[in-house]
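Summarise this fold before class:
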Amino acid sequence: MTVLKTSMRNFFAHKGRMALSAVAVLLSVAFVCGTLVFTDTMNTTFDKLFAATSSDVTVTPKAAKSDEDPQSGRPESMPASALTRAGKAEGVKSAEGAVSSMNVTVVNSDNKNMGSTTGAPTIAGNWTKNDLRSMQITSGHAPRGPTEVMVDADTADKHHLKLGDELRTIAVTGDFRAKIAGIATFKVTNPGAAVVYFDTATSQRELLGATGRFTHINVTAAAGVGDEQLKRNVADALGAGAYTVRTQKETADENRKGINGFMGVIKYAMLGFAGIAFLVGIFLIINTFSMLVAQRTREIGLMRAIGSSRGQVNRSVLVEALLLGVVGSLLGVAAGVGIAVGLMKVMSSMGMDLSTRDLTVKATTPVAGLLLGIVVTVLSAYLPARRAGKVSPMAALRDAGTPADGKAGLVRGLIGLVLTGAGTFALYAAATADKASDGSLVLGLGVVLTLIGFVIIGPLLAGVVVRVISAVLLRAFGSVGRMAERNALRNPRRTGATGAALMIGLALVACLSVVGSSMVASATDELDRTVGADFIVQGNQRIVAQAEKAMQATPGLAHVTRYKDLKAELTTPDGKVDGSGITAADPSYAEDLHRKTTAGELTAAYGKDAMSVGSDYAKKHGVKVGDTVSVAFTGGSTARLKVAAITDDDVAIDQGARYMSIETMKKYVPAGKIPPNQIMFGEAKKGQEKQAYAALKKAMEPYPQYQVRDQTDYKQELKDQVGQLLNMVYGLLALAIIVAVLGVINTLALSVVERTREIGLMRAIGLSRRQLRRMIRLESVVIALFGALLGLGLGMGWGTTAQKLLALEGLNVLEIPWPTIIGVFIGSAFVGLFAALIPAFRAGRMNVLNAIATE
């Protein structure tokens, strides 16, 4: 009870200092809980949607038995006879044929794409009774003929659509128009998909290119019949193995698989950044308790002298940490729910609608947040508590601070140097690896070891680096600058720990900046060296035939190149089977992409019954020019193609691609199963580049799902995409930077308290308030720049090593983004200035006489 009272008294006596540490715990726990609540809510949203849209039993075609190849852009479908047989199965109340396709684009009268901007699909199909499970018609009526369409209410609201507006649907089979006859509202939350409905005949004709076919069958069970029994009955009626038959749960689980990977990436990436924030917060908490223990050394000595045991002193500090962890974690859990709601609002503004009605806070989320926050806080305070317990009564009564342990410092320094050396060696090994997959594991080890090593040897580095920074920066400030330097060097361990908190975040910023800049520079260099085409047409969907014709008819183009990827199994002369497919392109692709060959000529690969293979593939399977490879096309026949060229795989574009001509492909793949183009290229007639570019843009205007880019556009888009990704990562890393700033504030605030008498004496002999505040600000700037210098140096080392691994994948250019690095370094000085505002202000207000009288 005495320990608890002492801990409570000390906790509230230093509530200002504790508040800063509590904020670090709060932010870290909030990010973890916010991530868990956000991802759980998304899962709940999709679970409800999939459950509501799935019938009791769903029948879909099997790929091997399907009469349609999904590469064609048309969905796999089944004949109407399957619907008849399924409807006659025992236990079936009703069976309904449905048509659904996601390979469509819907535009309004202004040619604006009505689809989602967040990657959610546009879904077109026929209106069925099963849709009433998840939607209700709230305006107009269901489509009754080929000129009518119904849209979902979310899409109508987002794009200001109303009854009577005309929409154009662009499908693989062609374009068709219809006017909005109805609007349907989701009964559950729609995460952002755009949905349009047609009558059954129109859906079959326009989406499948054939009447009397369905993409799936919705089967409803009769009263008293379970889903599993119904599944068996329907499967028996259709014939064993003829179709895929799933229960409602199985269908929902199958649909969920499509988003699990995406959700997993979001969840673990955000938790990773939360972990970084926790790591930074550890330094803050260690620093806080170390300084509080140092300030209470005489008090601890008195407690020991009157009978308190080492264990009681230790427990007193740990109980304070426990209180801090509980308070910070409880607030963090509540803040985490707020963060999740905020993320949902942000996603909704971007087009992915998430309703707070589906807000999901599982019991494990607050438990995980509380445990994590409390455990991390208590463990962070363990070393200071242990150090407090080891102080002898007489030493504490003689000293104003805890005695330094020189032997422990030497051992720690040696361990840090060993770890840093081992990490440096691992980075070197990664940079010289022969395979990127092997080197990446060694790179990860090197990053961890060098980070831990730098944290441990931080106090040693502080003595050197701070002196160098001070010589450059502080000499101009005279005696005030020299005092700021001495204050920063007074306790190297404290300065090292404070700087390390900032170092971690900035090391990751520098590493990612180097990797991102190198990727852009490498891709740009690769485009300059290898891409000869003037124009590239590409989109999120395959290029439909009508868009292809529009491009081919564009004036000012010397040639247009089609590029298709096909599913196929290749059997090499050594008997090995590879199912990664093959690419078919026009012979002009050899002009559009300047690929080096290690044997043969690429133009020969576009000859009759010929192909090329990549150098890695040739080496792996012992293939050489003149060999014959068996190519079994999915949905087509088997060809025996002669290897006419081996392309060099030391590239980033089309690495490992195997080429053949489109004419050869047509011999072995039926016309109905030839896929639309994945991408198309254009070459302008000499001297007509600008006119051809403008003409091509105009020709592709009716198809907003595709982008027309020249090489300058392509490079800029690549740069923008990498920049957006980095900005998002920097935004997440900002949490760690914020916690690091709190650490600097806390260190300075406690340092000011620790030096109260000293500050009073300096003020008494003539130091002005302005000079005092400047001294504290300069001390803060030096500490911040110390952490920045270590972090940026470490991060550039990591980034350079990562680029060496990327070079094995064809990204050969190393580019250090000096403007970013210099900007971050200068920004760190402002971080130091900001962190010193409150401590400097409080120091300036200190009463001189009271300060001198302080014990």
Observations:
- Residues 457-531+711-855 form one domain.
